[in-house]
Fold this sequence. Notes:
Layout lengths: L2 H22 L6 E3 L15 E3 L18 E4 L18 E3 L6 E8 L21 E5 L7 E2 L2 E6 L2 E7 L2 E3 L6 E4 L5 E4 L4 E4 L9 E2 L17 E10 L27 H30 L1
Parallel strand pairs: 1-2, 4-10
Antiparallel strand pairs: 3-5, 5-15, 6-8, 6-14, 7-10, 8-9, 11-15, 12-13, 12-15
Amino acid sequence: xxxxxxxxxxLISLSAVIFSTMxxxxxxxxxxxxxxxxxxxxxxxxxxxxxxxxxPIPLPAPSDSESNFLQARVPIDGDAATDVTTPFAxxxxxxxxxxxxxxxxxxxxxGANAEFNDNGxxxxxxxxxxxxxxxxxxxxxxxxxxxxISSSNAATVNDxxxxxxxxTTPVELQYVPGSASQYSVATNAATALxxxxxxxxxxxxxxxxxxxxxxxxxxxVLVVLSVKVVIPPTPIIPIPTPTPTPTPTPTxxxxxxxxxxxxxxxxxxxxxxxxxxxIRYRRLAGKK
Length: 288
């Protein structure tokens, strides 16, 4: 190793220690972008540049600061694949009509010095870069999806965005399966991403190695996915069927009214009279 390479290694190591301290002190996202004179991060770091007067960050970056890396839009006719004109924004205000498609975008830029990519083997390359997006699962009229970008050799960065519905009916945001993909500026290619992007996250890449994102403006990566607005059906509350009151079995009482008493008394009198005449007849027969 020649003296120049030794000096570079020492400089990178020292800068890494200093910059790591800055990141810990919430310095991330505050490196000024000044065009050709912009000073890069000495270590892999995501979305660290902010615009300065007269120097907006080059598209497709957020115009003000790369730290606002999660943005959204409502594509024309709900077709994100063909809409190349509707810009991404944060916050996003929309009608949230039933079935409306909202596209989310995660902007990824490794702001380290491209000079030390060394064709993918240098210290500026971020490894095992993972993008994870969280979609709120509750009914509401306001939402705050969030995203994180992590790596095995760079600090994790997080961002969220505000989505506000103009209506008053609570809705849900449901991830559209199969809608996630990434676009690499370096390769000018779009690649499908797994649905795990909304659960455990997924690896992305700027060149050919999964998980590797090189340091360079030309190695930026855009991750997109879609959610659908769904108005939950009004729950049908069943009306309970009333339990019928059982009809009591009537108690049969002995009729003791005046008519029945007279009838019973007459019957007893008739029986007694018949017995009297029978006995009398037998006595008279006995005397003959």
